[in-house]
Design a protein that fits this description.
It comes from Nocardia amamiensis. This protein is of the alpha/beta class. It has 17 helices and 20 strands. The chain is globular. Bound molecules: flavin-adenine dinucleotide.
Length: 497
């Protein structure tokens, strides 16, 4: 039997920081037969999709960028969405990977075919097969909406921060914002001066830390261009400062006190009204959810045209929102700042050897080996897989660790002429036991909050409960002994023939 479907050595799904970085490093290692499937019409992932006003990273850009592509020209400490998108595009262009991307090509289904030792992939633009499948689909792909009675009856304008309506004129409007996560903290100060009234529905107050953002001077940029080591030093300093937050995350919750004090001082300094201050004081330990850095959010809430409502929403009506205490808030628009679905749809579409999807496995228990491979999924890799994401550290640091691991795995396989690898179940189990043990006392599960750091039953949803630099050293080399390897290439080719 011959297989006439297009076949590729490597298929990567997603063209954000992960997919682009993977393609660059795989090409450098001599893997040229690769395709990136991207459902959107442009690259950039998160930074293409989120265009709401104020959208920017919350890890300083000298750190929130590829280590192999430093950029001396960041205009601010924290690059804006447009600037980060431009950066990814420039890196992809410079490293010549644009030609590998198939835009408008959504992965619909991917199943492991044991007989042919390959992945069978259905996309919106037809089928293909691949020796290796790499998920680079990110964690924040689809918008999450609250389930509120009457939501569909709202007659005004409504949209999610991920689907910002740039044509909507906020001037003089009464606007409800539902949710107080990282996106809301960024867009609320942008729209507050324009609207007549802003009603912020808050379920829990986030910890807001000083952002220390500023424009970079021309002199600074010139220096960084001339002395690349200076850029590395800045990157290293930010890395160390942010890594220190691990003390709160997974070392000992008592380390939270100085950070909480900083948050409280910021609140005291920026909000004059003591009642509002109480409303905006978080009721859980800092670090339980990702801490948010903003100098503009709290002052915006302290303005006369803003009301912070903590009563539970009872019902959405055609032109208002009714809270349980019986108050009806008349609004012209509702903006959902309610974040993202905890299990991206792509996870439903990767189906392993036993017919179970990555989502099926995840819902049983967040699982992977090193956040990069998965038992039951031969020749499959992922970035930011369960226990491969960091609490506060730059996601790109973790992604680059995973890229190095994946590239090293493929080199090891090439050297051994191996056709199939799969992490040994007992190795994965040992890793998961270690993750569970280390997670028990983390602030993410014991800090008194609920959020996307936790599964519905209160377990660690997939953060790596140790230092990112420890993760880096653990993923530096592909540990081939942890894998079942099939080097029967001649045999397999005979069967196929
Ligand atoms: C607003 C916002 C701000 C953030 N700020 C920070 C920050 O400051 N610091 C930090 O560390 N992290 C931050 N993050 C997290 C951020 O997602 C990661 O840092 C990083 O961008 C992830 O890159 P990625 O390539 O893995 O995934 P993504 O950027 O999400 O890219 C995934 C790509 O996969 C594509 N895709 C998904 N499913 C399919 C499919 N079925 N078929 C084809 N293509 C598909 C998507 O279209 C997308 O282009 C932020 C996230 C958001 C939403």
């Amino acid at each position: 039997m011959s297989d006439s479907i297009e076949h590729r050595h490597i298929v990567i799904v997603g063209s954000g920081f992960s997919g682009i970085g993977l393609a660059i490093k795989l090409r450098e290692a001599g893997f040229g037969d690769l395709v990136i499937l991207e459902r959107a019409d442009d690259l950039g992932g998160t930074w293409r999709a989120n265009t709401y006003p104020g959208c920017a990273c919350d890890v300083p850009s000298h750190l929130y960028s590829y280590s192999f592509a430093p950029n001396p020209d960041w205009s601010r400490t924290y690059g804006t969405q447009a600037e980060i998108l431009e950066y990814i595009r420039a890196v992809a262009t410079e490293h010549d990977v644009l030609g590998h991307i198939r835009f408008g090509s959504e992965l619909l289904d991917a199943r492991w075919d044991q007989t042919w030792t390959r992945w069978r992939i259905e996309t919106s633009r037809g089928p293909l097969t691949a020796d290796f499948l790499i998920s680079a689909t990110g964690l924040f792909a689809e918008a999450k909406y609250p389930s509120l009675p009457g939501l569909d009856t709202f007659a005004g304008t409504s949209f999610h921060s991920l689907h910002w309506d740039h044509d909507y004129d906020f001037t003089g409007k009464r606007v409800a914002v539902i949710g107080t996560g990282a996106s809301a903290v960024q867009f609320v100060p942008e729209i507050q001066p324009e609207v007549a009234k802003l009603v912020l529905f808050q379920r829990s107050a986030p910890w807001i830390m000083p952002r220390l953002d500023r424009r970079t001077s021309r002199l600074e940029r010139q220096l960084l261009r001339r002395i690349p080591l200076a850029g590395k030093a800045i990157r290293g300093s930010w890395f160390t400062a942010i890594e220190g937050f691990g003390l709160v995350g997974f070392v000992d919750k008592r380390f939270r006190h100085p950070y909480e004090l900083l948050g409280r001082l910021q609140l005291l300094r920026q909000v004059r009204d003591p009642r509002l201050r109480r409303t905006l004081t978080p009721d859980y330990m800092i670090g339980c959810k990702r801490a948010i850095f903003s100098d503009a959010y709290l002052p915006a809430l302290d303005q006369p045209n803003v009301a912070v409502v903590t009563d539970t929403i009872a019902e959405v009506r055609s032109h208002s929102i009714l809270t349980r205490d019986g108050t009806e808030h008349a609004v012209d628009a509702i903006i959902y700042g309610t974040g993202f679905t905890p299990v991206p749809t792509a996870f439903e579409r990767f189906v392993g050897r036993d017919g179970l999807s990555m989502a099926d496995l995840y819902r049983k228990q967040p699982q992977s080996y090193l956040g990069a491979t998965l038992a039951g999924f031969p020749n499959f890799f992922c970035t930011l897989g369960p226990f491969g994401a960091a609490g506060n550290q730059s996601a790109i640091f973790m992604i680059e660790s995973q890229i190095a691991y994946i590239v090293d795995a493929l080199i090891a396989m090439r050297t051994r002429r191996a056709v199939c690898i799969e992490v040994k179940p007992q190795v994965q189990q040992r890793f998961l036991d270690e993750m569970a043990q280390r997670s028990k006392s983390t602030v993410w599960v014991t800090g008194g909050c609920t959020g996307y750091y936790q599964t519905p039953d209160g377990r660690n949803a997939g953060l790596y409960p140790n230092w990112s630099f420890e993760y880096r050293s653990r993923t530096r080399r592909f540990d081939i002994d942890s894998y079942d390897i099939d080097s029967r290439d001649d045999e397999v080719h005979e069967v196929r023939a």
